[in-house]
Amino acid sequence: MNLAVCLTQVPDTAARLKISTDSQTIDSEGISFVLNPYDEYALEEALQVKGSVLGARVTVFCVGDDSFQPTIRKAFAMGADDAVLIENQTYESFDVANALANVIRAQFNGLPDIIFLGKESIATNDAQVGAMLGELLQMPAVCVVTSFKLEGSLAKLEREIEGGSELLEIELPLILTAQKGLNLPRQPNMKGMMLAKKKQILKQTADMSAAGKTHNTKLELPPKKAPGKIL
Amino acid sequence: MPNILVFIEQRENRIKPASLEALSKATELLRTSGGTLSAVLIGAKEIREQADILGNYGASVVHVFADPQLETYSANTYARLIAETATSAGAEAVFFSATAMGKDLAPRVAVRLQAGIASDCIALELDEKKAIAKRFVYSGKLISTIELTSAIKVVSLRPNSFSIVETKTTRHETKLHDYKPEPFDLKTIVKEIRSLPGKLDVTEADIVVAGGRGMQSEAHFKLIEDLASVLGGAAGASRAVVDLGWRGHSEQIGQTGKVISPKLYIACGISGAIQHLAGIASSKTIVAINKDKDAPIFQVADYGLVGDALEIIPEFIAEMTRVNAEN
Ligand SMILES: Cc1cc2nc3c(=O)[nH]c(=O)nc-3n(C[C@H](O)[C@H](O)[C@H](O)COP(=O)(O)OP(=O)(O)OC[C@H]3O[C@@H](n4cnc5c(N)ncnc54)[C@H](O)[C@@H]3O)c2cc1C
Ligand SMILES: Cc1cc2nc3c(=O)[nH]c(=O)nc-3n(C[C@H](O)[C@H](O)[C@H](O)COP(=O)(O)OP(=O)(O)OC[C@H]3O[C@@H](n4cnc5c(N)ncnc54)[C@H](O)[C@@H]3O)c2cc1C
């Protein structure tokens, strides 16, 4: 069974963000990047499936640059088998989804059995890549998943909605995006960290002729609130 | 000028107020420019009866897909029907409300229409050439301005951020469409909805009362529930108390919980950690009750009460009960 996990990294949530002089990006100087919290649930779920299905392999996919190395090493340390770094410079959901779709299809010579993503990046709060990937690969995609059970090739999923949840049953292959509550991610252990150092990261570039059409033109601080009344 | 299509969400044949916010915003944008405003409504047979309401909020054409097979949500089906309707209606922009369903659909429709997309917007401008939207990024720490320059633009609007406005012109046309299932549609049909009985969700409530570790025990959350109940609002929680198992995750507000934008948010015994503030940045009015006058929550509060929440909340409940009785 082929399990793919798409991972991104985000500034540490406690980081003080400074807007760069171009006023379009944040100044990454002195900011530490961490694995996106929702992606940790995605990876953990993939590792749990691997643990219960003989011969399953977990392959991690990141669209990013060399700064993603520590994030990928962490995924290895948690138990990922392989990793592919897709070296395309892009900030846009569609481009990321498109790059992932192309490289994932090539990597598995078709579709993997399950693709796991986080429900959203806590940097952009877009929550778009998973559903887009579903359209691009023509795979059923279930977003904001809080419970996942596999019975043979039938997946039973629960996804969060306002005031409750929706239950779905879907035959593999499928895509899911992980919500908090899905599982408790493991901490990498010593052995995992040692193994992680030796693993190879495969590098790829994706054909990006179909470019997205969304541009981030400006970043600003939210307007300051007038000081409140203390009673 | 741009034609706009608005997706109207319903659950159990009731239209969600958040969809009327999106429709009202589209009406406002088209007021001066005069494009056509269409709405698309998908659901069971009974949903037809709801179509007329949409005229009151500015829709001039209402596309209805009413079929027993459409009663339960299927992402693939709904996305296909919306994209096809957008194309046949010549829509240059498709609006959603950024609810659980809207957020699930908008990216799929954007891919199908090769459209640029901006999700969970708090401000929006639109002309023939482009859409300019503002949205929170980095969990509420910054605001990003997004420009969409594609021929078709897809946006989802943050619930409670745009007002519902009734229009006087109620002339509209309803177009009933047949539904013919396609194989990919059937792959994502929801089998069953499990709802938390009688509970108002924090993302849908006008008033949210939340408790943190300062409430000191699980039992004291009765006070939070009672205050929420006298105010007609929903009860919420900080992550600290969700992690302690005092409250369910569906109530958690913040970066790894829910993002809310109520008219009134009351934080009781919550310190105001940056990850908590991420969920409340677009609340209209924030009231904080905390015994520590230096708690960070006071920096974002419009009204701060320094004192013991366990003493203040009962007084608050008593006062509100008296006011409610008088009205
Ligand atoms: C203002 C801004 C600043 C940015 N700054 C940087 C930066 O300094 N450095 C940088 O490298 N990137 C940066 N990015 C890119 C960003 O980290 C995302 O990779 C990109 O925006 C696409 O993700 P999304 O927001 O659409 O993700 P969402 O749709 O919110 O993400 C959903 C899921 O998709 C998957 N996913 C998302 N992105 C990737 C990815 N790149 N690779 C693999 N899986 C992914 C994850 O599982 C994630 O949980 C920036 C983006 C913006 C808008
Ligand atoms: C990656 C990450 C994601 C996170 N996501 C979230 C999230 O989504 N939501 C969230 O809430 N947190 C989140 N957190 C946790 C966050 O950092 C804080 O730990 C948490 O919000 C603290 O909860 P609290 O305010 O209830 O508790 P505390 O910080 O312990 O604050 C308790 C407050 O109660 C006050 N108090 C005590 N007794 C009384 C009394 N009798 N009357 C009145 N006031 C009293 C105290 O003065 C104090 O200010 C996240 C953290 C991380 C690292």
Automatic annotation (TrEMBL), chain B:
From what superkingdom does this record's organism come?
Bacteria
Pfam families on file:
ETF (PF01012), ETF_alpha (PF00766)
Keywords for this entry? Electron transport, FAD, Flavoprotein, Transport
UniProt cross-references to SUPFAM superfamilies, sorted A to Z: Adenine nucleotide alpha hydrolases-like, DHS-like NAD/FAD-binding domain
* Binding sites annotated in the UniProt record for FAD: 213, 238-239, 252-256, 269-276, 290
* Gene Ontology biological process terms, A to Z: fatty acid beta-oxidation using acyl-CoA dehydrogenase
**What InterPro entries does the entry give?**
DHS-like_NAD/FAD-binding_dom, ETF_a/b_N, ETF_a/FixB, ETF_alpha_N, ETF_asu_C, ETF_asu_C_CS, Rossmann-like_a/b/a_fold
Cofactor(s) required, per the database record? FAD
Q: Which GO terms describe its molecular function?
A: electron transfer activity; flavin adenine dinucleotide binding
The record's cofactor note says: Binds 1 FAD per dimer.
- Keyword Transport assigned to the entry: answer is yes
Question: Which intervals hold domain Electron transfer flavoprotein alpha/beta-subunit N-terminal?
Answer: 4-188
Can the keyword Transport be found in this entry's annotation? yes
Q: Which family does it belong to?
A: Belongs to the ETF alpha-subunit/FixB family.
**Could you tell me what this protein does?**
The electron transfer flavoprotein serves as a specific electron acceptor for other dehydrogenases. It transfers the electrons to the main respiratory chain via ETF-ubiquinone oxidoreductase (ETF dehydrogenase).
What name does UniProt use for this protein? Electron transfer flavoprotein subunit alpha
The organism of origin for this protein: Chloroherpeton thalassium (strain ATCC 35110 / GB-78)
